[in-house]
């Protein structure tokens, strides 16, 4: 998935949850941050960022901040912070026949976004050539520490509800997938930020034996966009220290 009109800028600060200021072509401009997380490990003064023109030219902020270069001891790399991107690249990969969900019988013949099930909206509902219906809930992951990615990067109640909803789907005869989309490339291990989200951790521990399947992919990321790259191991008890706490 590619952006139109991406420009490089330098990050200045974040005056509010959804607003950042950047230096673009020698001018300080306000941008919309398309992410609800903290981003404290990447949104640092002087960081190189990618901004794209807002789809609505009448909006107060004319730019969206969508990606940041993170500088680390093990190299610099792009982190996509656009919370709409995980669903976009998932749909793109499924439509192209490039994303295979484990233990899914047949080929995918239908894959619809934003479907209501129970008292929640699920990111995707699909059906295969065998008639098997399935649900997919995606979670974007942007928090990296020492080459490992941890989810989430901020406290979340909605994610716990989503996991329980997937369990309910299994009870009703659907297949159910929790799909972690890592918005960084070359990540071999995804884990949970257990100190940040103990209830989510327990919910996922309960969901796996219940039949909910966990899938994770890292992505190829640059200033111009993001595409799914390859599967990544999900290791629920991998060591992880939240860099935002230090």
From TrEMBL:
Residue intervals of the SfsA N-terminal OB domain: 12-81
A molecular function GO annotation: DNA binding
Domain of life: Bacteria
CDD domains, A to Z: SfsA-like_bacterial (cd22359)
Gene3D superfamilies: 2.40.50.580, 3.40.1350.60
Name of one Pfam family that matches: SfsA
Start and end residues of each Sugar fermentation stimulation protein C-terminal domain: 85-224
Similarity annotation: Belongs to the SfsA family.
Protein name: Sugar fermentation stimulation protein homolog
Annotated organism of origin: Furfurilactobacillus siliginis
